[in-house]
């Protein structure tokens, strides 16, 4: 995501891994502008809701990293519902 002006808002929401059905995920989201970890979760399984809340600075640039527990290639399907 490119850098965005955010005016110090708080983003709250829930994320749910929708697929794949097997394995677990280690997920990390960082704000590259503030150099802060926004979210870090380990061993997250399918349909397991994960809540988050983050107060931005004047601007934010979020980047996400995902590691799968299985030794194969796949595509992470993640549903995020958030509000500011």
What is the molecular shape? Answer: elongated
Number of strands: 8
What gyration radius follows from the Cα positions, in whole Å? 14 Å
Secondary-structure element order, as H and E?
A: EEEEEEEE
Average residue pLDDT: 96
User: Helical percent range?
Assistant: under 10%
Uncertain residue ranges: none
Terminal residue distance = 17 Å
Strand order of the largest sheet: 5-2-8
Number of DSSP helical runs: 0
Oligomer: single chain
* Main pleated-sheet profile: 3 strands, antiparallel
Number of domains: 1
Portion in strands: over 45%
**Which structural category fits the helices and strands?**
mainly beta
Structure characteristics:
three-stranded antiparallel beta sheet; mainly beta; single chain; 84 residues
Characterise this structure.
The chain has no helices and eight strands. A three-stranded antiparallel β-sheet has the order 5-2-8, with no helix packed on it. It has a three-stranded antiparallel β-sheet with strand order 4-3-7, with no helix packed on it. The two termini are 17 Å apart. The chain has one domain (4-72). With 84 residues, it is an all-beta fold. Helices cover 0% and strands 60% of the residues.
Topology:
Blueprint: E1 4-5, E2 10-19, E3 25-31, E4 36-44, E5 50-55, E6 59-60, E7 62-68, E8 77-83
């Amino acid at each position: 995501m490119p850098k965005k002006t955010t005016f110090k808002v708080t983003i709250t929401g829930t994320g749910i891994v929708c697929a794949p059905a097997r394995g677990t995920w280690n997920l990390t989201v960082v704000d590259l502008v503030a150099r802060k970890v926004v979210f870090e979760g380990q061993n997250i399984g399918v349909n397991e809701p994960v809540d988050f809340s983050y107060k931005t600075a004047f601007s934010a640039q979020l980047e996400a990293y995902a590691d799968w527990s299985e030794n194969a290639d796949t595509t992470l399907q993640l549903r995020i519902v958030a509000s500011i």
